[in-house]
Design goal:
By secondary structure, the protein is α+β, with helices and mostly antiparallel strands. It contains five helices and 13 strands. The strands form four sheets. It has a four-stranded antiparallel β-sheet with strand order 4-6-7-8. Strands 10-11-12-13 form a four-stranded antiparallel β-sheet. A three-stranded mixed β-sheet has the order 5-3-9. A hairpin with a 4-residue loop joins strand 7 (108-119) and strand 8. Helix 3 runs antiparallel to helix 4.
Length: 238
Amino acid sequence: MKNITLLLFLFAMLMASCKEDNNFMCTDIYCTISIKITYPDEIPYVLDSFKVNIVSTGKDVTINPELINYDIINKYGLYPVIDDSYVNNDNFFNKKTEVQFTGYVADIPVIKQNLTVGADRCHVKNYSGDQNIILKQLDYALFKKYLIEKNIGELNTVINSYFSILDEEHFNLFIAEIMKCSDIKIVYSCYECIKTLPVMSEVSMIITTDSGEVERTIDLSTNPDDGSLYVGLHDSEN
């Protein structure tokens, strides 16, 4: 009798932790598919905003901002893509749908990551796509030091240690990193705007020093022979 009572109790506990839908039982765990964005030492990378779109249609399926836990974002760098509120959504139920997460610093798109997601009767799922993004961090102190000193050799080393591929995504990340340095203000930036051979991108900055402000402009281009990143430096033109 005691064994039967124990079994009935355990079954009741199991039912309490599940929800039933046409004889289909689901756990009460609320699932969220997130993308984690950090620096190598687990410091969270903080975006100003983000959005999620279905790749095939462009439809915006970003989670309602009122439902987003910004404490989790700021502490862990975890950004929600979709959650269990999408279980009955026609875009995801019994489907594998490719979505694109885009993260912004100011209005600059710095992160683009695609996931293939879907949902069954109970929970959302990630079928493919990397949910962990680890970004390099610019050495702000050395970057500022060599900008002020106009030490092109060392500046080249600092920038090349941060990124060595000059495409629009990496350029935007570079701009966003500079914006995180409180002593440097970007006056303007442009990707592949100087139509030389090779084509160049440019960043013009004002750097605050103990003795005042200095203006510097960096030119970035790719060596057509070996694909390496070339860094040029000169005083900004007024």
